[in-house]
Amino acid sequence: MNKKPKAIIALVLTVLTVALIIWTCFFSGGSYWVFDPQGPIGQAQKELIIITTVLALVVILPVMIMTFVIVWRYRDRPDSKAKYKPHWDDSAKLETIWWGIPIVVIIAIAIITARYTYDLEPSKPLASTEKPITIQVSSLDWKWLFMYPDEGIATVNTLTIPEDVPVRFELTSDAPMNSFWIPQLGGQIYTMSGMAMTLHLQADHPGTYYGSGANFSGEHFAQMRFDVNAVPRDQYNQWVQKAKQENNPLTEEGYTALAQPGVGQKTTYSAFPEGLFQRIVTKYVVEGSENPHGGHGAQAPAVTETASAAEVKPASGTEEAQASPSHSGH
Prior knowledge:
Elements: H1 4-26, H2 40-73, H3 92-119, E1 133-140, E2 143-148, E3 153-156, E4 158-162, E5 167-173, E6 178-182, E7 186-191, E8 196-201, E9 207-213, E10 225-231, H4 233-244, H5 252-258, E11 267-269, H6 276-281, E12 323-324
Parallel strand pairs: 1-5, 4-10, 8-12
Antiparallel strand pairs: 1-2, 2-3, 3-11, 5-8, 6-7, 6-9, 9-10
Helix pairs in contact: 2-3
EC number: 1.10.3.-
Subcellular location: Cell membrane
Pfam families: COX2 (PF00116), COX2_TM (PF02790), COX_ARM (PF06481)
């Protein structure tokens, strides 16, 4: 039986499969946020992905090509002209090539990755002439609470930031561990109870960006999404003033209800209890004991006296949270 038609069919199917994958990834009109960065951190991460992929292809492509060539050339056929060397078992030249090139590639990837890792350290402030704004983030079941300590306002499942201005995120959790992620601005970082993480991001262009919880945290984890609205500075200031005038403060009782498991709706609060973020961070620390996450380098902030529900004060000034080193990085 002639095996040539089967080989041709297999080759055609392979080529079509590769073409379909390439078309799906780059030309089908889909949105690939990681490859459409809108900030300096996201752009640097995209560069790292491309560089490491290209270096890996230096090894992968020749191997794939050689695999096909060897299978085709040395296939079983009556008229085969391939050299038959049953006792050949060594070649110093070939050994040097297929061991040397991968080693060089791995060393190059290691050096490049290490440099980017230090440059993209999450707690490292971004270089800018603009003063950063601070946003305190707490992941709940199954919603996100954002507190603006300098502005004295808070939001749920929606985030507004000024474009081209660094943002310092201080992150914790009042629920199971989650992962804060805005794909177009930078990589994800964990939110964990009993400790505060720090993440610096920036949006270089106005727009609405997708944000989500990237860690499984229960029944409705897939609905832990939020919008990130990057707007010009004057529009941001107008939004802050409008939020303050809404007369919808987040009280202590309101936060207790908000923290209960359930899907949250987009909400804006004109004020929130002073010291709320610090109390969330230290909520699970027994008084007089050491921080259970002390091994990560985080020191628990001092616990402030709980504000009464009837006397909700806007947060004034940035109350710095002690940040531990990131587990996931930018």
